[in-house]
């Protein structure tokens, strides 16, 4: 899987390749699902795990903001896969935080991470997954060098902008039917620069009630 993503030029850095090799996607998908094909998969509760090429794209865009010792927030952390990748990149002196509003997925993700190469960081507390409304971020460990949002918002939630460190970067899909993956950089004067990376299709970033009703 990683070799294919390198061949197609999606993974350009050895650090991203190494991280995706260490964190086995097979531990993070429901039983009976082919984990290594390049497509998103349902994980129940009207949620999905993104396709490997989207995970690779996000890790690549955030690589400089996932250096050892940095803080990273994963909103809508789902299976815990990307949160575990963040933990591997920021290391035990950094902090990787997942926020997920479906309690069953919080439990599922913690079980998955416990089986993975990121388990020691779950144990030492530098990696944690919390039940909560990700649109509010997770103020306890703010500010964050890197924020990844795994569901599409109609607009960028202000609490996430507030919790982004000066000099930090957020990756978030924005839009309703048609969505763009936005790269949001917070400049040294506190202003925000936003550019569009690519067109995407994500599930909506919404309340738990609305998500379960769909």
UniProtKB/TrEMBL annotation:
UniProt-listed GO biological process terms: methylation; protein repair
Catalyzed chemical reaction(s): [protein]-L-isoaspartate + S-adenosyl-L-methionine = [protein]-L-isoaspartate alpha-methyl ester + S-adenosyl-L-homocysteine
GO cellular component assignments: cytoplasm
UniProt feature coiled coil, ranges: none
MF annotations from Gene Ontology: protein-L-isoaspartate (D-aspartate) O-methyltransferase activity
Top EC category: transferase
Record keywords: Methyltransferase, S-adenosyl-L-methionine, Transferase
The family this protein is said to belong to: Belongs to the methyltransferase superfamily. L-isoaspartyl/D-aspartyl protein methyltransferase family.
UniProt protein name: Protein-L-isoaspartate O-methyltransferase
Natural source organism: Cicer arietinum
